[in-house]
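Support reply, case 0932

Customer input (verbatim):
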Amino acid sequence: MIRRPPTVICYICGREYGTKSISIHEPQCLKKWHNENNLLPKELRRPEPKKPEVRAITGKGFYDLDALNEAAWTSAQSQLVPCNVCGRTFLPDRLIVHQRSCKPKATK
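Our regenerated output:
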C-alpha cells in the first residue's frame, strides 16, 4: 500500500498542502484573500479569516494533524456565503458570478 505524505489544509482556501510548503502558502494565500476581498462590494466583504489555534500536541511533541486539519477545514468552510436564490454556498467572489446565471426554480 502506498502512503501519501502528510498534508495540511489551508485555513483560508481549504486546499491541501504538504507540511513543508504550508508555511510558504499561507502568507501568499492571505495576501490574495485581502486583494480579492477588497474588490468585492461592501455587503459581500468578509472579516479576515483567523488561523485556528490547535493546542493538541501528541506525546512525541508533534501537532495532531487530524485536529489541525479539522479546524482549518471548518475555518475555510465558514467563509462561504449562501446564494439568496438557491441556497448553495460559494466564496464571495464566486457568488457574484453564480448569481448571474442562478434562476429560481419554476413552480409546477
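We compared this against your earlier run and they match. Two observations from our side: The chain has a mean pLDDT of 82. Strands lie at 7-9, 16-18, 81-82, 89-90. Please reopen the case if you see a mismatch on your end.
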